[in-house]
What does this fold into?
Amino acid sequence: MAEGMSLRMIFMQKKLIDRLPDRRTFYRWVAANAEVAKLFNLGLMMRAEFYAEEIVAIADDGLNDTYYDEEKGQIVVDFDNIQRSKLRVQARQWIAARMLPKKYGDRMTSEISGPDSGPIAVKNENAVALEALDVFAARMAAITGVPLETQSSTASPRPTDAQSRVMSRTTYLSRI
It folds into this structure.
């Protein structure tokens, strides 16, 4: 597998037919034995790496891209060969991307982090606005001499601190 052979190709080799079990048995071995599964996955990774190296070799090989046409007496571009090479590259790219998606896959991921790769600090804008309202209400109470009222305890269900502060401010501001 490390040389790019698929499992299908390995099982079809005549010299190995007598020594290998059938494919179903092999897959059962992989499923049942962690060491066999680890070696099989290592072989798959090595095959993906082989395909990636082969992509560069195919792309760089332009040996058969042109030929001499004796009838025309000139060098002619062999577009069929170029298309075949392109197909070979794309097939290997697709397989390598499926075998090692983190390394050769098309999916791009972005990671956003805070300072020193830490978590992002999230600021609650409502809390900032409530604090500003508290400061404003306290100043107004000091200027007018009218004390802030709190929400009565008879309300059900009981509001949160933020809700009661908003209610107190609303009550206070409506009295001014």
